[in-house]
Design brief:
globular; iron; heme binding; Cytochrome P450 86A1-like; monooxygenase
Length: 217
C-alpha cells in the first residue's frame, strides 16, 4: 500500500482519542449537557485533513472547542462561493463591486485563507515533512519548474475540500461509529430542529444536538 494511503487511513485514528476526551468532558459536567455532535465531528474532520495536507494540526477539537480563524474563514468562503452558483450573476457581481453582503465576507475570508496557506508553505520550505504539501513542493511541472505558490494554494485547497467530502467522511464515519457508539447511547434533544444547511457538503443548519449516556461495557 502506498504511503499516502497509509496516511489517509491512520491519521483519522490518531485523533479519535481527542474526540473521546471531548465527549467525556460533557459526561463529567454537573448538569446534563447537550452535545452538538455535528460540530465535534466537523472539528475532527478538519483537524485530520489539515494534518494530512499541511502537516499542521489546527487542534479545533481541543477541550476548549475554541474557534480557528482558518476553519471559520474556509467555511465562510465555501458558503459564499455556493451563493454565486445559486443567485443571478448580476447580483453577486454587484455585491462584489460595491463590497457588501456575501462578497464582502468572501473577500475577507479568502485573505485569511491565503495568509494561512502562505505561512504553511513558508514553514514547509524551512522544514519539509511527509505531508501532501511537502510532497507537491518537491515535484515539478511539465517544463521542469517547481510549482508556483498559486498552484500550491489550489492543490492544498482541493485536498481540504476533498477531505471534507465523501471518501474521508466514510472512513471517519466507520472509525467514529466503532469508537463512540460502542461507549455511548445517543438520544436527540427534544425540540431540536434538524434542517439542511446550504453548503457544498451536506451539513445540518442548526447542528445535531444529542444527549450522551455511557454504556455499561
Amino acid at each position: 500500500m502506498a504511503t499516502i494511503d497509509v496516511l489517509l487511513i491512520m491519521k483519522p485514528m490518531f485523533r479519535i482519542g481527542r474526540l473521546e476526551t471531548s465527549l467525556q468532558s460533557f459526561i463529567a459536567a454537573e448538569y446534563r449537557t447537550a452535545v452538538d455532535l455535528q460540530d465535534l465531528l466537523l472539528r475532527l474532520t478538519f483537524d485530520n485533513i489539515c494534518g494530512l495536507t499541511f502537516g499542521k494540526d489546527p487542534e479545533t477539537l481541543s477541550p476548549e472547542l475554541a474557534g480557528n480563524p482558518f476553519a471559520m474563514a474556509f467555511d465562510t468562503a465555501t458558503e459564499a462561493t455556493l451563493q454565486r452558483l445559486l443567485y443571478p450573476g448580476l447580483l453577486w457581481r454587484l455585491e462584489k463591486l460595491v463590497g457588501i453582503g456575501k462578497e464582502r465576507k468572501l473577500k475577507k475570508s479568502l485573505s485569511v485563507v491565503e495568509n494561512y496557506m502562505n505561512d504553511a508553505i513558508a514553514a514547509r520550505k524551512e522544514s519539509p515533512s511527509d505531508d501532501l504539501l511537502s510532497r507537491f513542493m518537491k515535484k515539478r511541472d511539465a517544463d521542469g519548474n517547481h510549482f508556483s505558490t498559486a498552484v500550491l494554494h489550489r492543490i492544498a485547497l482541493n485536498f481540504v475540500l476533498a477531505g471534507l467530502g465523501k471518501d474521508l467522511a466514510y472512513l471517519q464515519m466507520k472509525s467514529v461509529a466503532s469508537a463512540v457508539l460502542l461507549r455511548y447511547r445517543l438520544s436527540p434533544v427534544p425540540g431540536h430542529r434538524v434542517e439542511q444547511k446550504m453548503s457544498l457538503t451536506l451539513f445540518m443548519k442548526n447542528g445535531l444536538h444529542v444527549y450522551l449516556q455511557p454504556r455499561k461495557l
